[in-house]
Design a protein that fits this description.
The complex is a heterodimer of chains A (224) and B (290).
Chain A: H1 4-37, H2 40-71, H3 75-104, H4 116-136, H5 139-172, H6 178-217
Chain B: H1 2-9, H2 27-40, E1 43-54, E2 57-68, E3 72-76, H3 83-90, E4 100-108, E5 111-112, H4 120-126, E6 127-130, H5 141-151, H6 158-168, H7 172-175, H8 188-200, E7 206-210, H9 218-231, E8 236-240, H10 244-250, E9 253-258, E10 262-268, H11 269-274, H12 279-285
Parallel strand pairs in B: 3-8, 3-9, 6-7, 7-8
Antiparallel strand pairs in B: 1-2, 1-4, 4-5, 9-10
Helix pairs in contact in B: 5-6, 5-8, 6-8, 8-9
The chains are: A mainly alpha (224), B alpha/beta (290).
Chain lengths: 224, 290
């Protein structure tokens, strides 16, 4: 087959994107633990590790630009390079969201009423499944991932209500000491922000699924 | 978006596809217009069940296609696939090859160019041709351009037509003070533009180009590409090229010929280069074979 060097570079690009997604997935899982447990040291590891994610992002971006400039990919090759170029942006953002989560748990951890672990893991599963679809070229999986986002959004809404309920209940308990209020506000703000970030991880997973569907079938249905 | 609409409206005759990079950020609107434009463009040239043989060897195998007016249509494919043969059928250049036999129809303006009552010389005035290597006559620049007009006995202002043709070929500014110099003294890129001026001087409707930039350096080639873009405002341009990126850059429609003289896929250029229907075409344009 002609253009063997080029084809090897395309395959290396695909593998690099998958490796980046695995790295981001690991950081995200650690961030969930740090947020739930209030594990500041673990959280700091996640924050420090974001540089690795950013470096991989920049290296893959550079390779995509080089492939466009030097190899002029077309057809399915063009879609692979273009989709990968976009997907790494989503992955890099998930890496940033992981650092947010790691920071929110720096006090006593997230409020248990949020059922945060299940929520966050669902978003992480969506992202992992989207990357599997990217790896295997699974069209049906792309559609299924997009459909799961509505359920995640609804669960995020309920989790946010649970956090706010905590604030109201604190108020009802008439514990209006400055310490209690400060603690309550911290719990609420970090809880709401964490839920928002998980919801965004779900959105990025849908983006990955949408770009993957475009890559496989030139179908932009999920992009809108 | 409003700017995009205005820009498109200024080019109502030829609404471009998103290959025009200046429009690339507003593709939604422009692509829609281009699609409408493609549907509404009348057919300039059509082939119906076309077979071409060189002796016993078949060079074109049952090709049917309609080429839209005032668009750039690129013919691509590996060597020996029949794309140049197809191009030369359109203005009957293959008549000059004794062993060449053409079956089927090639229509221009609804008339089969192979009908007995068609004069090939008159046909070639309406369907001009530019070749791979610039081939100016050993005459002055003016005489090169005026040649076709004089042959056809044009009685109007030949100098005015020469100027018009040289302007149309984006060469006037460079040669207007040396019209009596030999065309052979020009650079390769200028010579090719001179040949384009010669081709458009008789006011053709179609311009056939057989790898018009393959003998030129990149700068000269890019000038020809710009010129092709401009020419399509007035003429139907059909170009054979081995350079797939060139086809992607300059054409509205692309026809992919593959081994055996078969037209495997013919569609909007964007479609061909983003999502071809046929695996053989995908393999060819991605370089998996050919």
């Amino acid at each position: 087959m002609p253009r063997n060097h080029y084809r090897r570079r395309l395959e290396a690009l695909r593998e690099a994107v998958l490796e980046m997604s695995a790295l981001v997935g690991d950081r995200y899982e650690l961030a969930i633990e740090a947020a739930i447990d209030g594990d500041e040291a673990l959280g700091q590891r996640v924050i420090d590790g974001d540089d690795d994610v950013n470096e991989r992002y920049l290296a893959i971006e550079e390779e995509c630009v080089a492939l466009h400039a030097l190899q002029q990919p077309v057809a399915s090759d063009l879609r692979l390079v273009t989709a990968s170029f976009k997907i790494i942006t989503d992955l890099e953002r998930v890496g940033d969201l992981a650092t947010n989560l790691a920071a929110y748990g720096s006090n006593d951890g997230l409020h248990p009423a949020m059922e945060f672990r299940g929520l966050a893991e669902s978003a992480g599963d969506m992202l992992a499944d989207a990357m599997t679809a990217y790896e295997t070229g699974d069209v049906d999986a792309c559609h299924r991932i997009a459909a799961r986002d509505e359920d995640l959004d609804e669960r995020c809404r309920r989790a946010s209500q649970a956090v706010l309920r905590h604030l109201v209940e604190t108020d009802r308990a008439r514990d209006r000491s400055s310490e209690a209020l400060a603690e309550g506000l911290d719990t609420v703000s970090s809880g709401l922000l964490a839920v928002r970030d998980v919801e965004r991880v779900g959105d990025h997973a849908v983006n990955v699924a949408a770009r993957t569907l475009y890559m496989i079938e030139n179908d932009d249905e999920l992009l809108y | 978006m409003s700017n995009a609409r205005e820009d498109t409206d200024e080019r109502t005759d030829r609404q471009r596809t998103d290959r025009d990079t200046s429009d690339s950020l507003i593709t939604t609107e422009v692509q829609t217009d281009a699609t409408v434009g493609e549907r509404s463009a009348p057919t300039a040239v059509a082939a119906h069940d076309l077979d071409v043989y060189y002796g016993d060897e078949q060079a074109i195998d049952d090709v049917s296609m309609e080429i839209p007016e005032k668009r750039v249509t690129a013919l691509i494919g590996p060597s020996g696939c029949g794309k140049s043969t197809f191009l030369r059928c359109i203005n009957r250049m293959n008549d000059m090859i004794d062993v060449c036999r053409v079956e089927g129809d090639v229509t221009f303006g609804g008339k089969n160019v192979y009908d007995d009552d068609v004069d090939p010389v008159a046909l070639r005035r309406k369907i001009g041709m530019v070749f791979q290597k610039p081939n100016p006559f050993p005459k002055s620049i003016r005489d090169n351009v005026a040649y076709g007009l004089e042959i056809q006995g044009y009685s109007g202002d030949i100098d005015a037509r020469v100027e018009e043709a040289l302007k149309g070929a984006a060469l006037w500014e460079e040669v207007n003070d040396q019209l009596d110099s030999s065309g052979l003294d020009l650079s390769g890129g200028q010579q090719q533009r001179l040949c384009i001026a010669r081709a458009i001087a008789p006011d053709p409707e179609v311009i056939l180009m057989d790898e018009p930039t393959s003998a030129l350096d990149p700068v000269a080639a890019s000038k020809i590409e710009d010129l092709i873009d401009d020419l399509a405002e007035e003429y139907t341009v059909i170009i054979v090229t081995h350079n797939m990126q060139q086809a992607a850059r300059i054409s509205d429609r692309t026809a992919v010929f593959l081994t055996g003289g078969q037209l495997v896929e013919y569609d909007n250029t964007t479609k061909i280069f983003e999502d071809p229907e046929h695996e053989r075409v995908e393999d060819y344009i991605t370089g998996k074979f050919g």
